[in-house]
Amino acid sequence: MLTGDQYRESLRDGRLTYFEGRQIADISVEPVLRDAVDQVAGVYDKFYSAEPGAINPLLTAPNGFEELKDRLPALHEADIVTNTTFQSLMTVLTASAKVAETNGEYVERINAYVDEAQRNDIRITECITDAKGNRAVAPGKQHDPDAYVHVVDRQRDGVVIRGAKLHITGASFGHDLMVMPTKNMKPGEEEYAITCAVPVSTPGVRIVNTTYAPRHPDSRHFPHTDGHHMPDGFVIFDDVFVPHERVFLDGETGYAAVFAHALGLWERLGGLAAMADQADMLVGLAQLIAEANGLSRESHIKEKISEMLIHATLVRAALEAAIAHCDVTADGAAFPNELYTNAGKYQGAAQYGLMVRHLHDIAGGAVVTTPAISDLENPDVGPLLRKYLSTGPEVEGEYRAKLFHAIRDLTADSYGGWHLVTNIQSGGGLYAQRIVTRRYYDMDRAKQLALGAAGMADGHMLI
């Protein structure tokens, strides 16, 4: 296993990573980016063991219901890149049973790769969303064939890929990029049916980073996101060679969607777990600021908070159901329930904007206009600010200001905008969750119940 410092050193491998117009020689010391490195390094140190053959328990497949239930809180407390590593490994393991139908060698490669990744304690990020070009045009009919990552050359010992993957959280901060098709591919699109693991330092890989990281000199102005942010990468594959042992699908179009579906399941479970805690946090902020504003007993405020806590309860119930009704394979590996995972993720994302609106309505405009804590410490205006931000002898001005800053940082600033979009798009957009939910919902039972209500329990349906 690696220590945090060994992880930092492993990033100095010649990778080509860019940020705001500059190539970054060492992301571990680059201002703004180094916070993300420190997050990942901290989790390395937390789980480090010098025992020979030790493996980070977060990178292993959960064995049964209890392990799956216990794993999620631990992953939620870890950094995003550790999460994407777990999700990547679980994705290829989930997909391996299906791809075995077409090529048993893929299964051998997947198992060998998972074993190697666990033993070497590497971090992996998921590369699924392509540039896509014209969304109304299929991959094989795009004006530019590179709009989707594809194989441009098949050589004796491997393949060469070209294209780009977008929205890849933590791409510059892992060791490998898990590349997979973003959707189902059709006959004639064999070159786009490619799944493979690519080291970040491979020649031809370039990563351009964007981030919502705060740039304010006073960290108290960003109580939630300061030191807790992870850049997203625009990953370019410019004729990148991948050896066969790291290729897990190549040309079998009928299995292209298997990887995307498997990744969607694990990404949505992780998103659902995060949403459950976030929903509770929003309820807490709404109640605290309502009390600080002196409005907690107002009926319309109580109604909004009631809606928020019902939402939080339903999201958590879906998470609990996804775990409680997990599927367990013959070898004991546990996989979350498809129906509850997708329905819960959809509900959490679809209603998130309304919950934030309730919070802003309860809190008021001071969410975005409250002066900085440093202004409250100014000897000239500070006492006056504290005086007018206070709402009574039990509510100090600084306390109320800190609540406003927390609400702004979480929901109304750079992170808030990023989070609003990613809640919807991570793990596939809302439409993807609707498709999967419909696929796994017991429609026959629902129709039989409806026939019974109509007095036709033993009757014949027209369709």
Assigned CATH architecture of the domain at 258-447: Up-down Bundle
What amount of the residues lies in strands? 5-15%
Classify the fold: give the CATH topology of the domain at 258-447: Butyryl-CoA Dehydrogenase, subunit A, domain 3
Lateral strand order in the biggest sheet:
2-1-8-9-5-4
Question: Can you describe what's shown?
Answer:
With 463 residues, this protein is α+β, with helices and mostly antiparallel strands. The chain has a domain of 190 residues: Butyryl-CoA Dehydrogenase, subunit A, domain 3 (Up-down Bundle), CATH 1.20.140. Helix content is 49%, strand content 14%. The protein contains 15 helices and 12 strands. It has a 6-stranded mixed beta sheet with strand order 2-1-8-9-5-4, with no helix packed on it. Strands 3-6-7-10 form a 4-stranded mixed beta sheet. The longest helix has 38 residues. It is globular and about 75 Å long. It starts with a helix and ends in a 10-residue tail after the last helix. The model has no long low-confidence stretch (mean pLDDT 94).
